[in-house]
Amino acid sequence: MEIDLSNLNKHSSKEEIVAELVKLFSPYAQELINSGADFSYMNMYADNFKDILLAQTNMDEFEIFTILNEACDLSWRSIQ
């Protein structure tokens, strides 16, 4: 799967970022659920995107942490 977050920028809102991440994370959440893995793997996967989001957006580290957690949670719940 191609990872493309290029449409996120300094003007992106929290909601736009979460929506893009949910699209990105949902297939991974499905794979985890199908394999019997637990939610903690979602957070580890999401950590891979922290630096990209810090560079591309106006969000600080705490905001990015919150956004990643929300996107993980929404992705996981959308599959179950």
Note down, in words, how this protein is organized.
This protein is mostly helical and 80 residues long. The protein has four helices and no strands. It has helices spanning 14-35, 40-47, 50-56, 61-79. The longest helix has 22 residues, at 14-35. It is elongated. The two termini are 21 Å apart. The mean pLDDT is 93.
Estimated structural class: mainly alpha
Determine the N-to-C terminus distance: 21 Å
**Number of DSSP strand runs:** 0
**Helical percent range?**
over 70%
SSE layout and pairing:
Elements: H1 14-35, H2 40-47, H3 50-56, H4 61-79
Helix pairs in contact: 1-2, 1-4, 2-4
Main attributes of the structure:
4 helices, elongated, 80 residues, mainly alpha
Give a short overview.
With 80 residues, the protein is mainly alpha-helical. 70% of the residues lie in helices and 0% in strands.
